[in-house]
């Protein structure tokens, strides 16, 4: 029976697709475009994401529904973090609010004693002040004792997060050896928190196909498929692998996290009816690692060539106006995720040797610790007036927003996943017709050298980066003219990728023929 939480499929659609993503959707251009284009192609699309707050959210992307779910995470803390450690740290307080309570209690006691002392002094009561002396000494001693216990408590918390003791290493290896691929349940039970939050909703929606984005959602989707098939419902699973998991730099410092994700992915990849990914190189790597019977289809995260009338009606911010500079001031731009391995520091470090050049960082969180660190470094170098940190714009505005820059920078370091793909900003810069300055990572460096659309520099080499920037600024027309080559940009559009994605869906659900999309009313950017 249909309900608010389980709406009936839209009339006349080809079937229901439930897309899964482990984020808040905003800022993830790939899943936004997947949802919109699938709905345009005639599918009833519901995109499930994770709410960044404590309340559920919902909105529409074209004809696709977006629902952000509340994800309680009690299992994100490991079981041992709820226990005392009488042998490892006998002076530490037990986990929970006691340590904070004792700290606050001591501060309140000493503050109250100070007020009582002031009151006694105001009354000239020397005897009352003397009577307070033993209590003040007692409070001082107890306060130091509490301080020692707090230090032990905080140190224990850090050790438990690092899990680098011999005992921790032994238990991690023990679970992997005894449980094999099932060990992810012990190493990162938060994955089960995700499954509990998403799984019930997926089951209620009764999809015909589940599109699971990336490694965490693969398990959520696979488990939903298993439950559906147990209930005699045939549901297909598409796994959209965004990166090569063994080659990522883990964003969670917990030493068990990466091992858990790899085991979880290996455990559930066999349930995927089809796999899509972001490059041919990664497709081959996935075949080898997971023993896939069919090479994954490549769906690049390319920009839209066409946008809807409502999107076109929105004014695009002026990049140079936001930076406070005129049209003749040289401006470099970086747009995308901000992290040390992305190499953004080189753009700041080089500025003293590139007089007049301004840098614009377009990032999801302009006030993140990493961006604050870069801003402080710019201040130290005396170039802060030439560094501009700006927030994201909607994905359909990225290309026209970037067009005002003189060149786009991709300074990423040598990590396995950085070597194997043409990442989103490569296509965005290209459609903005920007010359590129890209590090010598394998795939992007080779493409930039092949097409001639930019200069390649040695990753994390400031002097070589300066050389590349000077070359681009000396003759920008040479690099921009490359984009006039017939067909070059046409192959790097989302419309071409959406066709490939729909072919994957149609092969899995062949009884649902494609509905032609009328783009007559749409606007070309």
What do you see in this structure?
By secondary structure, the protein is of the alpha/beta class. The chain is 45% helix and 14% strand. An 8-stranded mixed β-sheet has the order 3-4-2-1-5-6-7-8, sandwiched between helices. A 6-stranded parallel β-sheet has the order 12-11-10-13-14-15, with helices on both faces. Helix 1 packs across helix 20 and helix 7 crosses helix 8. The C terminus is likely disordered.
Strand-helix topology:
Elements: E1 16-20, H1 29-40, E2 44-50, E3 57-61, E4 64-69, H2 98-122, H3 126-162, H4 166-179, H5 184-187, H6 190-205, E5 209-213, H7 214-230, E6 236-241, H8 255-268, E7 274-277, H9 280-290, E8 297-298, E9 306-307, H10 309-312, H11 319-323, E10 331-335, H12 345-349, E11 358-363, H13 369-381, E12 387-391, H14 398-402, E13 407-410, H15 416-419, H16 424-431, E14 436-439, H17 442-451, E15 454-457, H18 462-474, H19 476-480, H20 494-508, E16 523-524
Parallel strand pairs: 1-2, 1-5, 2-4, 5-6, 6-7, 7-8, 10-11, 10-13, 11-12, 13-14, 14-15
Antiparallel strand pairs: 3-4, 9-16
Q: In this structure, how is the largest beta sheet organized?
A: 8 strands, mixed
Rg computed from alpha carbons, rounded to a whole number of angstroms: 28 Å
The secondary-structure class comes to alpha/beta
> What is the terminal-to-terminal distance?
42 Å
Strand order of the largest sheet: 3-4-2-1-5-6-7-8
Mean of residue pLDDT values: 90
Count of β-strands: 16
């Amino acid at each position: 029976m249909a309900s608010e939480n389980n709406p009936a499929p839209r009339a006349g659609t080809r079937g229901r697709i439930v897309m899964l993503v482990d984020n808040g959707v905003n800022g993830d251009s790939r899943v936004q475009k997947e949802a919109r284009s699938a709905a345009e192609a005639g599918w009833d699309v519901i995109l499930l994401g994770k709410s960044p707050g404590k309340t559920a959210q919902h909105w529409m992307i074209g004809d696709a529904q977006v629902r952000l779910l509340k994800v309680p995470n009690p299992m994100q803390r490991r079981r041992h973090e709820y226990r005392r450690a009488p042998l490892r740290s006998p002076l530490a307080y037990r986990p929970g609010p006691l340590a904070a309570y004792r700290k606050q209690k001591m501060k309140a006691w000493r503050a109250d004693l100070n007020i009582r002392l002031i009151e006694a002094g105001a009354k000239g009561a020397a005897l009352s002040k003397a009577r307070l002396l033993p209590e003040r000494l007692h409070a001082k001693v107890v306060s130091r004792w509490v301080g020692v216990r707090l230090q032990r408590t905080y140190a224990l918390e850090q050790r438990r997060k690092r899990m680098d003791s011999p005992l921790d290493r032994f238990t991690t290896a023990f679970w992997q050896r005894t449980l094999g691929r099932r060990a992810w349940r012990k190493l990162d039970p938060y994955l089960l928190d995700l499954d509990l939050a998403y799984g019930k909703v997926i089951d209620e929606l009764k999809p015909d196909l589940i599109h699971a984005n990336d490694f965490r959602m693969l398990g959520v989707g696979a488990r939903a498929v298993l439950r559906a098939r147990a209930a005699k419902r045939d549901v297909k699973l598409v796994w959209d692998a965004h990166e090569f998991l063994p080659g990522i730099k883990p964003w969670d410092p917990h030493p068990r996290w990466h091992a858990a994700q790899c085991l979880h992915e290996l455990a559930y990849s066999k349930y995927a009816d089809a796999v899509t990914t972001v490059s041919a190189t990664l497709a081959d790597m996935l075949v080898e690692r997971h023993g896939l019977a069919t090479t994954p289809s490549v769906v690049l995260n390319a920009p839209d060539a066409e946008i809807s009338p409502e999107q076109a009606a929105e004014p695009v911010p002026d990049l140079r106006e936001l930076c406070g500079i005129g049209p003749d001031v040289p401006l470099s731009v970086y747009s995308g995720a901000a992290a040390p391995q992305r190499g953004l520091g080189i753009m700041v470090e080089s500025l003293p040797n590139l007089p007049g050049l301004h840098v614009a960082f377009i990032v999801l969180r302009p006030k993140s610790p990493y961006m604050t660190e870069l801003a402080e470094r710019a201040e130290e170098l005396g170039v802060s007036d030439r560094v501009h940190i700006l927030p994201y714009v909607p994905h359909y505005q990225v290309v026209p927003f970037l067009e005002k820059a003189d060149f786009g920078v991709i300074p990423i370091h040598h990590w396995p996943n950085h070597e194997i793909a043409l990442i989103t900003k490569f296509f965005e810069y290209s459609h903005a017709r920007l010359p590129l300055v890209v590090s010598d990572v394998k795939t992007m460096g080779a493409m930039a050298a092949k097409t001639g659309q930019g200069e390649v520099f040695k990753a994390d080499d400031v002097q070589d980066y300066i050389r590349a920037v000077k070359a681009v600024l000396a003759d920008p027309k040479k690099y921009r003219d490359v984009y006039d080559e017939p067909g070059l940009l046409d192959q790097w559009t989302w419309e071409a990728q959406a066709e490939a994605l729909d072919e994957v869906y149609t092969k899995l659900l062949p009884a649902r023929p494609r509905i032609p999309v009328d783009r007559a009313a749409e606007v070309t950017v």
